[in-house]
Design brief:
This protein is α/β, with parallel strands linked by helices. Helices cover 29% and strands 19% of the residues.
Length: 286
């Protein structure tokens, strides 16, 4: 067993890359350090970007979950040597999908699939499955979403809740992945000055962020750029990319199926659950 063990809990394939891809790649490259990613569903309810793959969607052939297994495997290969687990086994819980509040926030659908991850009666079994993984891996550091889940997706909210409950049983240092408001604004400002992007710029507060004073931990992931880009490309059903200038050094914009531009940032930010500033591991710079 390695001396340092990091475990990340994510809701769907692609979440690991979008929110913590640089962190995964950073620690996967470190000596005597292991990285374990736990994914809680197959992302069966996702919206597909490439038209030629649209028949994978749940309203058509409903094969998206199986397709995303391959996307996730390729993304994790790009990020570095990573151990991966599906919570409860492959396909144990299904992507709950999401509704919208009429603005930019996600809400829980009125009707949930019988195997939906966000179903109230599934909570205890989900916690037990995560506790089993924590007891086996014994991570010193665990990363998941904050209490808001970033933008309110019911599966992100549930992942936060079960991770907090599981870590209470198997203690570890707990961090929540976020984006600071000023960090996001600076990234968007760089995109706003570019021509040729196929994506529209977001409206005010359309992308989730938190007040910068809440951020306790920042990790420079600029050295992991190529690995992150390769992982994003692997999630082709969910992530569209556009790069301005010479490949590898230009400014990068990414977008989900709504085609709203998001900046690819060179820093990943976190809130420590205990509120204490510092690195993800004690010897890491904050």
């Amino acid at each position: 067993m390695t001396s340092r063990r990091l475990l990340l809990v994510h809701a769907h394939p692609d979440d690991e890359t979008l929110t913590t891809g640089g962190t995964i790649a950073h620690f996967a490259a470190q000596p005597d350090t292991s990285v374990t990613v736990v994914t809680c569903s197959l992302g069966e309810e996702g919206e597909v970007i490439p038209p030629e793959l649209a028949l994978l969607e749940p309203g058509e052939s409903d094969q998206l979950g199986g397709y995303r297994i391959g996307e996730l495997a390729a993304a994790l290969d790009a990020l570095g040597p990573v151990e991966h687990r599906y919570l409860g086994g492959v396909g144990r819980w299904r992507d709950s999908g999401m509704a919208h509040d009429g603005a930019v926030r996600a809400t829980t659908p009125a009707v949930l699939h019988p195997r939906a991850f966000a179903r109230p009666e599934a909570f205890d079994a989900e916690v037990a499955a995560l506790v089993e993984i924590l007891r086996e891996v014994r991570p010193q550091t665990v990363i998941t979403y904050d209490a808001d889940g970033g933008y309110g997706h019911p599966d992100h909210l549930r992942v936060h809740a079960i991770t907090v409950a599981a870590v209470a049983q198997v203690p570890a240092r707990l961090f929540f992945t976020v984006i600071g408001r000023e960090t996001l604004a600076a990234g968007l400002a760089r995109l706003a000055g570019l021509d040729g992007s196929p994506f529209r710029m977001p409206e005010p507060d359309e992308l989730p962020s938190v007040p910068d004073k809440l951020v306790t931990t920042r990790l420079d992931v600029s050295a992991r750029r190529e690995r992150r880009l390769a992982a994003m490309r692997a999630h082709a059903t969910q992530i569209a990319l556009w790069e301005d200038g010479e490949p590898g050094i230009g400014t990068v914009a990414l977008a989900m199926s709504n085609l709203v531009a998001q900046p690819m940032l060179d820093v990943e930010e976190f809130i420590a659950a205990d509120g204490e500033p510092g690195g993800l591991f004690p010897e890491e710079e904050p």
